[in-house]
């Protein structure tokens, strides 16, 4: 392969793979590629969905793919035509799915899902890495090989090319090969590691074990196999090792430990690397010690194999389970390497490391406990010794107390309650005196417990005493831990009992005097008060932490005291507390009201800087307290509190908009008290608000409305002083909002109450907040973010003009648009809020186009720069909502340096030149400005759905300019095509806006020169993307309605391109594009033809139709009909349908087929299509088209002639004579089939053309009779006849008869025959006729009779015979239709037909037609035909004697039979002279099948007195072969006889049957099978009579037959018992009444035919004896089966039982006959015999007799006995239980029988008995 080929292959995209374009083979995981090609997409989709549903049952995490990869929309997604972004998103989804699928790869559902991905998304091409990563852990399975065979890795540069050798043989990847490649190709090692990290991020952790196993086994084995672990391998693995050690997954961590161990064993690493690994392992063990033993083991291996100088795992010393783990491991392994590193750190940590404090605490606790226990045990030491001991211990105890006071306190606290004896208590107090905190554990005398426990005692009195004890300690100056005292006092402030809280407060007061600072206490409060003298707002958002803590404490104290001061027994105490609180902390009124302002507004703060919750109740209480305090203030103080810089009025104003009614009520009261300050700058606002107290209390939003009204009033009040005061007041209020020290939540409340008119006043606030919203500044508070959102909300329709007048306002708004940081998740970013303000009313309210242009530019810039989907969606909705001038958008689309508007002639000419010479533009605009295609594309995307666009035509020049500059771009081909599609789509939208109804557009709106149709056509030619073609064609279609002449000049390239490309695509969108193009372009052409030259347009349209016709073979089958139907509908079917049809005929005529079968199939297929196409239109249009086709064919009637006007359709110069003939033949064939279709109902006009054409064709037949083309002209004439047939079927009846009469006189025999055939069709299908029409038709009889007679000398014999037959058939139809009402007219027809039949040398086919005509005429004429019977009947019977002719000519036979049958049916009483001959003829064996209906007619139409003697005579003279037919006649005759006739003729019939039943006796030496067949026919006939007899009449007949059987020949026994068996079968239970006399004969016959007892009784030998025995057994079976009268008495049972059972030993007839007789006759008979017995005593006898037969010497008898025993058990069922005891021994014997078959049968019998009886029998044996 050349270098260029390599480069092209490397650049090739997956969608260019040629395999995607063929359907011969399709890539498939589960199916053979050829089989997969035959399956449709829905099959694969159903397979994939089934797999996904099964996977969801295992892992619900796959649910998210149900709406993406497996959604119904994916059925139509073709990724090869999608954009880059869509494919990237699709790749991400597929990669995620395959990663999650990996653990379940071997399951069948996974294979189904992969099959769908391969079929629909071609993952083997686009996502080969992800697919192989999914399968790689199973590299040793066959499924991996199937996946590997799907991907294309032949190229040597492919990363998977090393697996190419496995594809063809289809063998799995060996582990050795995998490991070798892993350490030789480090990118593959990195691939395996990355595969694990990706799986951890997206897959449920419970299913990742297989991936971790593969990861560990592969990497460890690769490290082991490599000769030298290089630094590159270590650097590649190290990041993944660190991730594994940090990961919380146990299996991942374990795999990483293995890799670290293998690295440690394989290579010596630098000390720093070892130290790093040890640190990470230690951290993983400390963070989650789930694998303690494995982790410690890994450390040991690491330290054991590395240099001594490594720093080691110092952090591990704090691991909780370290000691126990080392203890367990030391028992089996050497742990010294770890201990050697660990112990020095442990020792050093005890003394030096401050972080070791926690580790030492346990040791210290143990030390103190041991020390204290030892100390308390020194009860016997002297006082001096104890003092010395105390001196030695004092430094140690003080050291422990200073360093580890918590551990010391824990031990001492635990011992306070454990000491029991007084001596130990004394020693414990002595030990306590050694520590500084001894006071905590001193035993208080009043409570007998320590001070520490007394402070938390359950009894309030004890807690009060303990707090007072604290007071005494403080006042006395005892040495006690100061921290303990402070914590104890503050802790008691939270007590539930007021006395305890009061005592704690007294302790705090005393502590202040002493000089302590409790919890940021008074000193801090003084500091706050002193440090904030100028700050009128106490803003928790700005205060430092200490001050916030202090304020929080004050708020909590205030909440506790004011809630308790309301009512109750302790209210007085709480009021005292409140006074004390205010006196100490809030002594000055300004301080107090600043504190109250905090409480009033803090409830709306979303932050919690004070760590306190201020609810509505506390807020209301604070407001009522403020009201009371304001009412008590002197005027001067009140004026100060209501001053401009005071927070009181703004805070109260915020409370007036609270959602809680009581808060508003309380705030209104406080405002009332504040209104006493008459000099306040807020006095005008106060007065106005106090006038509407009810509205404020009732509605929280009223304040906003009121302030809005006030703001409007201050602009309109006429009294100057009032206006000045009101304006000043509103200005002061806005100034409060602007103050940086004002809390943002209060400012938000105030800003929320004002209306939009105050935007200019709030701009500084917005400026400040935007400064704080930068990327490097701290996050805004929630309230600040809301405040900024509120201020941005002021940018609306009313304030919009401010943006044009105030540059600062516009700049701030643009800054807000560019500020993208979202401060809080539930509050939109500043950017989103600003964008949402650009609404439909806001944008036009801006007024200034420059401002609008600036905002549009910023919005489009944001769209380009932002990566946020939310911003893109918001911009899209904003742009969709606003009404924009087209010029503004055009300016944004134009390049930066290019002048925005082209107005001069020179510039206009230059833009046209640009459009004409796109190849010169390149990537840079003609005037030097670079086009930002990304920005242009995004703007064009927005324009796709833009409806509110003014002056849309302004976009047209710039869009065409962009389209021209885009043509030669050398960028991304896909992006270029996409941009081109967007441009075309925008131009289409502009056209729709300019001309919604499709009319022309004036030059003042859009100049025709600005619309470059040539450029659009160039787009079509230059692009190979179907979507681009679609957009361009739609645009051209729309442009055709606006500028028809401009499009007409480019029309043929458009349609030629459509025929060559788009019509071949099989998708709905392409079909829609063709549809739209045709609908838009064609009407414009038609309109031009109406306005101007019609011939030119006709020529253009014909060429267009030619394009469609030529392209038709390449169009998908199901698209052909809609495309052509739409084309013709648009063109006008009356005008152009015939042109299309002729072009289609020409296309078919000029095609070549390889074989005759292919040619016939193609013709049939095309003919169906042509008819379906024509049937899409009205009948009148179709008829008009047929006439046009005929006119065209008449002009082409001679091969030498040429018509120049029609050359476009069929040029004689360009086509051969054969093609011309084929063309004509197709045209006429099509017309014949079309006229025969169901769509034609009604009249046809202008049939003269078809008649003219037929004459023309007939002349051509004569002229070309001797030429090679004669056959063609004959076939063409036949087709013309077909057309004539269809036309005449549509003619009025009167006209039709006239035409037919004329055609019957034609000289050509073929024309005469065609006329008669048309007449026959009419007669067959028409049922109602008018009288005058009947008369006219009957007049045709003479013409037809003349044709029947021989004449017209030139005609050949064969042709004349056919015409005569046709005429006879026509006469037959006339007779059938009208003969019954016009019999006289039919008599000549009968005479002529009889003459033909009686003529000896007449042609047989004509004679047959004459016979059929006779049949019809006789049935019509009835009595009028009697004179002709003497001539007719002998002639007909004579024809039946000619056997040879009848058997060779079936039609002749049927004709003769039909004639005889009709005569018999019509005149049955007049054929007696001919009856015997007729009966013998119809009984002929060779013709029996054909004559069955005639026999039936004889049997049913003739009376018994005539037929019975005739049948008796025939029986005596007929042959054996005729007897069956005779009997069938008699049987049917008897079945139709009534009772009286049967009684009258019974004796005659009985005599006949006795004679017929002797047939066996008379032919006993003949063929038994033939004899049995004839005897069966006689018996069937006799049964027909028996079934009609009563019991009284049947009994003597039966006994007469019984007596008959016993006389003369023994053969009669066979006949009689066969007859008895058949009678028993038919009479069922009734036969039992007559069977009593047969019992003894039955028993005798059974004995006589038993070969074991006597000799054979019949002369015929064993065969007849076996047959007799069979009849006897079958007859007995039926008697037993239908016995309901207790026929089997004991005597009869005894008479029959023994002979029946002895038949088991009767081997008459041989082994096969014996076996068949036993299984099919004897065993069922005995089984039914047992049922008929119905007596358990007789059952026992029967069972025993059968059991005795099981001991017979012959194994066949024993086997048969077992069969009979099983039948007996199955018949008796549970009744057989009583017979079981005597049966078991016999069966046990048979289980050891010498015959193997008998043994097997015994097992079957036992098993069957178990099934029948429902109990196991094996235990009995």
UniProtKB/TrEMBL annotation:
Coiled-coil segments on the chain, per record: 1788-1815
Q: What is its main location?
A: nucleus
- Keyword terms of this UniProt record: Coiled coil, Nucleus, Ribonucleoprotein, Ribosome biogenesis, rRNA processing
SUPFAM superfamilies given in the database record: ARM repeat
Gene3D superfamilies, alphabetized: Leucine-rich Repeat Variant
Q: Which GO terms describe its cellular component?
A: 90S preribosome; small-subunit processome; t-UTP complex
Name the segments for region: Disordered: 899-927
- Kindly list the biological process annotations in GO that this record carries: maturation of SSU-rRNA from tricistronic rRNA transcript (SSU-rRNA, 5.8S rRNA, LSU-rRNA); positive regulation of transcription by RNA polymerase I
- Cite the BP28 C-terminal domain residue spans from the record: 1539-1687
GO terms (molecular function) for this protein are: snoRNA binding
Q: Which SMART domains match?
A: BP28CT
Source domain of life is Eukaryota
Pfam families per the record? BP28CT (PF08146), HEAT_HEATR1 (PF23243), U3snoRNP10 (PF12397)
Identify the InterPro entries for this entry: ARM-like (IPR011989), ARM-type_fold (IPR016024), BP28_C_dom (IPR012954), HEAT_Utp10/HEAT1 (IPR056473), U3snoRNP10_N (IPR022125), UTP10 (IPR040191)
Compartments (UniProt record): Nucleus, Nucleolus
Give the protein's function: Involved in nucleolar processing of pre-18S ribosomal RNA.
Say which family it is in: Belongs to the HEATR1/UTP10 family.
- PANTHER family on file: BAP28, HEAT REPEAT-CONTAINING PROTEIN 1
Q: What is this protein called?
A: HEAT repeat-containing protein 1
